[in-house]
Design a protein that fits this description.
By secondary structure, this protein is mainly alpha-helical. It has helices spanning about 5-20, 25-45, 60-65, 70-80, 85-100, 110-125; strands at about 50, 55. It is about 75% helix and about 5% strand.
């Protein structure tokens, strides 16, 4: 049975793909790809143990790593637990999502397709 976290990731993936198929809101294609990857990867790696601390959610991970924010904690968790290529793709989605949300919504189709490709690789890795 799929966890609610995984199902949430699938919903975001479906929205990402629908937006891309309809050639609209490429900024949200990238953003939903990133949000989907968050849910999928957290589902894969949590619960876990970090420095002998049982972590069942990202707040526990943040405390175990003694980091300031959830995004930094999640990035560290993925860097430590995932294949290097998955970690690189997650970081790219994180960076491009922030750019699309906070710098400009003008995202090119090629970048949106790359975001979907990276998400699909993360999805396959997490299944």
């Amino acid at each position: 049975m799929k966890s609610s976290q995984f199902v949430h990731g699938e919903r975001n993936k479906d929205l990402c793909q629908d937006l891309l198929k309809n050639k609209i809101y490429y900024d949200w294609v990238v953003t939903t790809a990133f949000y989907s990857s968050i849910h999928l990867l957290e589902d894969k790696f949590l619960p876990t143990e970090i420095k002998e601390i049982k972590c069942t959610n990202i707040a526990h991970v943040r405390k175990a790593y003694n980091l300031k924010g959830r995004h930094m904690a999640r990035a560290k968790l993925i860097e430590d637990k995932a294949d290097q290529q998955i970690s690189i793709k997650y970081k790219w989605l994180d960076d491009r999502s922030r750019y699309a949300r906070y710098t400009t919504y003008k995202v090119q189709a090629a970048e949106a397709h790359k975001a979907e490709q990276y998400l699909l690789e993360i999805f396959k890795y997490c299944k």
